[in-house]
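name: query_chain
kind: protein
chains: 1
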Amino acid sequence: MEEVLTNPKDGYYMNRDVFGSGGDFITSPEVSQMFGEMIGVWAMCLWEQMGQPDNVNIVELGPGRGTLMADLLRGASKFEKFTKSLHIHMVECSPTLQKLQYKTLKCEDEDVSGSSGDKRTVSMFSGAPVSWHTTLEQVPSGLPTIIIAHEFFDALPIHQFQKASRGWSEKMVDVADDSSFRFVLLPQPTPAILSLMKRYKWAAKEDIAKLEQIEVCPKGMELTHTIAKRIGSDGGGALIIDYGLNKVVSDSLQAIRKHKFVDILDNPGSADLSAYVDFASIRHSAEEASENIAVYGPISQSQFLGLLGINFRVEALMQNCTDEQADLLMSGYWRLVGEGEAPFWEGPDDQTPIGMGTRYLAMAIVNKKQGAPAPFNESQD
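structure:
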């Protein structure tokens, strides 16, 4: 899975723009500007709770085209004290997407040292410095940190185990005699069995008993450890929004090409691979990593955005727009917070907006000193 998505030469994300209607799938920031604006509200509330520090790292993991960060900065532009405190860090391994993010954030390179030629990159949205890294570990520590992981965990490689007569066997990809790919079960234990045992320890016995297959994500556990340790020592918080479950995930690995599901083994590297995020595993991993953090949620994306005030935002935007813009706004709003097909839609059936409001979940990991973050302090979680 990791090879298919991030191989430097042929990885799915590495050499193309895969987002939007011309790509293979559309994410929330591409649906409506309101998504990034609401994440900006969340980040600003967290910054307030931290005591409005003068310098903050704001980190986005897998920022896609950079749309979310651009909408966040544009939406927060009136709050100068907040935007002036930001040091933006984009964690992105794709050179193609890094270039797109540079453009989307309206970046320019400034000479900072006169004759020595040292340059820094700043976003013209806010004047904030912008840096790129391939891993979270490369982001400098020591400052309070706000981390945003929107549709990032779902692309981390998972391991699948299947119940067999000898116990749990890992499902692997093999090459058949005709050179095609096929799935096989390994007779001997694999290193990932350690992650399965850890997941077992965290799960209720009855949850595991009825499953024939289990997915675990060791990379997700490791990343959560890194996030929790960073927030535990430096202060701040992380927001994770993704589609998934608040329990053990059984069989969710899928491939999407041109907005349609395709066979996972068909022409690897040409389709996006993703799996459901196991939010319960994220909670346990974070709590295991640091005593200084607290985990809130998950709550549905619909509840998260609603409590942050997206309803007021859509009403305000509707005041000053044409009928066509109003249709786009309502369509985007429904996709973000609705469930199923939009009841108000009068356009072509194949373009009916489908809501992600309940399929996507939001979870926060924050430093305990700061108390419950918005809007989890209002949710009945």
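note: The chain has 13 helices and 19 strands.
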